[in-house]
Amino acid sequence: ETDKSSLSFHLKTIWLFTRNDLISIILPQTAYGIFSALTGPLLTTNQSPRLSSILLRLPHVILWLWLNLLVFCIANQRLPDSIQEDSINKPWRPLPSKRLTPLQARRLLLVVIPAACLASQYLGAANETMVLTVLTWIYDDLGAADEGMVLRNFVNALGFSGFSAGAVVVACGPPGSFEPNRTATHWLIMMGLMIFTTMQVQDLYDQEGDAARGRKTAPLGLGDRAARWTLAVPVTVLSLVSPAFWGLSVYGYVFPVVLGGVIVFRTLMVTGVKADLLTFKVWCFWGISLYALPLVKDHSVFYRF
């Protein structure tokens, strides 16, 4: 029998809060931060970044992202509607699996939020953490997640942009060294638009749980077929517009167009819970292919070790 007082039990509980978001948040946003920092003057104030110094920031970026993700996950998963939904879609999560109670989750937040704020102050992304904390409150406690597809996607886009912005700030170097430039802001808005117009990809495989809590997602509000087209069209457009934003040659279009094409084909032709979940994972890697485009534009850092 599992010892619920053991350190390993508690560490696994913490891990289970964020496990499902590693591929959707930690991996892509780490890539966004590191790739942006590696471009040097294209997106930051660092005129000549060294590959080794940016890669050494990798643990800092992952730590910042994971702490802020943990705050969001605990805040989200402790709510009664979330527990009901997770008991259908993700019964292994800490609350539906009875690893801890909602009261214990709330008390855990009282520790994790100050820890995330202190770490962010040290890492240099305190402002981004403050924004993410407010957005978490709006999304979860004020119920923006349940107010329809447009508001839900808009808050999601702001949240993803907050993770992206913080990841870049941390990746650039210690506080007070370098920072993102104005072009980085324009690119951040562009990628926020990508999230806003395609985030319904996660709703396609989650329809049973969303229906159980009465959430107004694209598939439940518009119908499954129409919702699929609301994903296929912007993915097609962004796969072409994003490389064009950087003025890339035909080679810069390869990965976004190929992965985007896979998403469009699967979204419209290969359906079902398992198929839609795989499409969501492809979407995550499509996002990474877009995040890499500035580095395709300026990859001179690979000659500076």
Short summary of the structure?
By secondary structure, the protein is mostly helical. It has helices spanning 7-18, 22-38, 51-55, 58-77, 80-89, 102-123, 126-141, 149-172, 182-198, 201-204, 207-212, 218-222, 224-245, 254-269, 273-291, 293-297.
Instruction: Count all strands and give the number.
Output: 0
In oligomeric terms, what are we looking at?
Answer: single chain
Q: Note the beta-strand portion.
A: under 5%
The level of helicity is over 70%
Could you tell me the mean pLDDT? 93
Structure description:
- This protein has 305 residues and is mainly α.
- It contains 16 helices and no strands.
- It has helices at 7-18, 22-38, 51-55, 58-77, 80-89, 102-123, 126-141, 149-172, 182-198, 201-204, 207-212, 218-222, 224-245, 254-269, 273-291, 293-297.
- Helix 4 (58-77) runs antiparallel to helix 8 (149-172).
Task: Map the helices and strands.
Blueprint: H1 7-18, H2 22-38, H3 51-55, H4 58-77, H5 80-89, H6 102-123, H7 126-141, H8 149-172, H9 182-198, H10 201-204, H11 207-212, H12 218-222, H13 224-245, H14 254-269, H15 273-291, H16 293-297
Helix pairs in contact: 2-4, 2-8, 2-15, 4-6, 4-7, 4-8, 6-7, 7-8, 8-9, 9-13, 13-14, 14-15
Quickly list its features:
single chain, 305 residues, mainly alpha, globular
